[in-house]
Each structure stands twice: as C-alpha cells, then as structure tokens.
Amino acid sequence: MTSPPFTGGCLCGAVRFTIDQPLGVGSYCHCTRCQRRTGTAASAQVRVAPGSFHIVEGADAVRAYRPPTGFEKAFCGACGSHLFSRRPDDETVMAVRLGAFDHDPGVRPSYRQYVDYAAAWEPIPDDGLERFGESRPA
Fold first, then answer.
1. Distance between CA atoms of 136 and 63, rounded to whole angstroms?
2. Domains and CATH numbers, the chain
3. pLDDT range class, residue 101, cuts 50, 70, 90
C-alpha cells in the first residue's frame, strides 16, 4: 500500500485533487447507473476518509449529476472524466474512481456490489471477491 498524499485528476488536466489520509476500502459497483455512467460493466472506486479529499485545481470545472436516490456523481465538465461520488446530505462521505489517480494507489477492490444488475455481456469473473446482490451492508 502506498502512503498519502495521493494525487489525481481528469483526462484534460482541468481538475486536480489530493487525498491526504490513507485510503479506505476499494470496490466494484455493477449497478445500472454505474454501467451507464462509465460505459463499462462496473465502476471501480475507493472510499476516502472524511475531509481528506481536496480539489487543488479546477473546482469550477467539476460538474455533478444528482440522481433522485444514491450518491451524487462528479465529473470534469470539460473532458467528462469521472472523478468521484459523494453523499448529497454529507459531502464528506465519498468514493474516488480508481482510474482518476495519477499512480497506483495501492488499493484493490475487495468486494462487488449490485451484482444482481451485472451486465449480461460481461460476466463477473470468478475472482473470489465478496459479492452483494444490492448495496454492501454498512
């Protein structure tokens, strides 16, 4: 596992962030919303400690989609890169997309959630990760 600070950003470089505390648990989400948001079968992300995520450049470029339920999905308004998600009623509760980090953050997903909605065109691999049909219980 690597140590903080962690850095990352979007494809075009408009948005840059740092995380100044150790990273939490990584996961894959197979929900239909993540499939449509990413154009892939699952989204890979890692939870971060409250208050540890900081946008250091391009806060004005961040756009968000706030669905009726669930976490707000944040992305770069210039290039469309998916960056993070956060709970609307407590924006310190967030998950950062693993693909947004500059370097290997040292975290590997340890479970898969919403597998009941997994894409039929890409079977979930037999990787030994814990699976949850819906959201992972808190």
1. 27
2. 6-118 (3.90.1590.10)
3. very high
